[in-house]
Write a structure and sequence with these properties.
Blueprint: E1 2-7, H1 15-27, E2 31-35, H2 36-42, E3 53-55, H3 58-61, E4 67-72, H4 74-84, E5 91-95, H5 110-118, E6 122-127, E7 130-133, E8 144-145, E9 148-153, E10 160-166, E11 169-176, E12 178-182, H6 190-193, E13 205-211, E14 221-224, E15 229-234, E16 239-244, E17 247-252, E18 257-261, E19 266-271, H7 276-283
Parallel strand pairs: 1-2, 1-4, 2-3, 4-5
Antiparallel strand pairs: 6-19, 7-8, 7-18, 9-12, 9-16, 10-11, 10-15, 12-13, 13-14, 15-18, 16-17
């Protein structure tokens, strides 16, 4: 079995958990493939019995890799997606950050999660991505997002107007700080903080959530993920920002943004000891009586 490790710098208290992960994988005769920059961070902190193999791109990752372990927060996993792309490599999110909805395996669950993966006690959850199409190919070939596509004003001054079309039919003009088009995975992120609903993965929906809308009767709207959304920005400065997850580009407002479901999914590993429902119940503290 070949397992790739991708991550971002973590605090010293998390070192023992990563060392345990490495020791456990080595004890199972697993081939480890570690992202080049991450390996540089691990040097001097983590001991390896044998020098691990290294990867630094999508091309060097996709050959014979069985799993990718993303070690960090949700932002780390979103970066890992740009390496996995359409390779179908299953991704396990290990949370070395704070909240973590998609990187849901916490430090105290790590041993159980490793056992589940090694003993095939897990499910593969296919997560929808969104694809952004523009005439000038703003994001090149990495033009997809696992969480959301967001259009926001370029500075902190006045709001912008965004005309939205659903399957070529005019939907609404949004006067707001911006607009979020989120997948079910992204519904627990930026969209949720702006008042959007939580959407269960697999429900085949996406949600449009306005950011601080001027008209208070404008609310989030849930759509089928087969919809094609076209956005036109009307802005006096002729510039706005569009983001795919955490990647931003400035664009001229004469450019139309076409957003639709991507042609491939991301496979997330869900150990039997974890589930989406248990994660949101824990992270959002549902069912906990705070009066005690």
């Amino acid at each position: 079995m070949q397992i790739a490790l991708f991550g971002t710098p973590f605090s010293e208290k998390f070192t023992k958990y990563i060392q345990h992960l490495v020791n456990r994988l080595e004890s199972e005769n697993t081939t480890m493939l570690i992202y080049e920059d991450y390996l540089s961070f691990l040097e001097g902190k983590i001991k390896f019995q044998n020098p691990p193999e290294v990867f630094n791109s999508h091309e060097s990752l996709k050959q014979n890799t069985d799993f990718l372990f993303s070690i960090g927060g949700d932002g780390t996993l979103l970066k890992a997606v740009t390496l996995v792309r359409d390779s179908n490599i299953p991704v396990l999110g290990i949370n070395a950050g704070r909240l973590g909805f998609i990187s849901s395996v916490s430090a105290d669950q790590l041993e159980i999660a490793i056992n589940d993966v090694l003993k095939n006690k897990y499910e593969i959850k296919k997560r929808t991505l969104l694809c952004l199409e523009t005439e000038n190919k703003l994001f090149g070939n990495v033009n997809y997002a696992l969480n959301e596509v967001a259009v926001v004003k370029k500075d902190t001054s006045s709001m912008i107007r965004i005309d939205a079309f659903l399957d070529d039919e005019f939907l609404n003009s949004y006067w707001a700080d911006g607009l979020i088009i989120a997948t079910p995975t992204g519904s627990t992120g930026y969209s949720l903080s702006c008042g959007g609903p939580i959407i269960i993965p697999g429900s085949e929906n996406i949600v449009i959530t306005p950011i601080a809308p001027h008209n208070l009767n404008v609310r989030p709207i849930v759509l089928t993920d087969q919809s094609k959304i076209k956005l036109k920005v009307v802005d006096r400065d002729q510039l706005a920002l569009v983001s795919l997850d955490s990647r931003f580009r400035a664009f001229d407002s004469s450019i139309d943004l076409i957003i639709k479901k991507a042609a491939f999914n991301i496979n997330l590993v869900e150990p039997h000891s974890n589930s989406f429902i248990s994660t949101i119940r824990s992270k959002l503290m549902w069912g906990i009586d705070k009066r005690n």
